[in-house]
Specification:
single chain; mainly beta; seven-stranded mixed β-sheet; four-stranded antiparallel β-sheet; globular
Length: about 120
Amino acid sequence: QLRLVESGGGLVQPGGSLRLSCAASGFTLDKYAIGWFRQAPGKEREGVSCVSTDSGDRVYADSVKGQFTISRDDAQNTVFLEMSSLKPEDTAVYYCAAGRGWECSLNIEYYDYWGQGTQVTVSS
């Protein structure tokens, strides 16, 4: 069974940091582009960042440039999203997704497999 499992979410104060993980089981991630998305209450799911299969291409939404860093460790079959200087507007459920193409995209339609999400709450 192909699964993606996100972890690392939680409650953090404004200005704090979190590292999200996306671990795959049932398949290896090295041939998939990986994207991170988020969905805040009452809003549509939006692309945050993505990484191509060889990590040569990393894309960030304008809203998180300089704040988030995506990386992948194919040996661990895991992709990470380092988030720093967190703001209340970063509060959302964060999802990772795997797409069969080698290049990455922030388009939801590009991805084939999705995790269940992890909640990130930024609040004092």
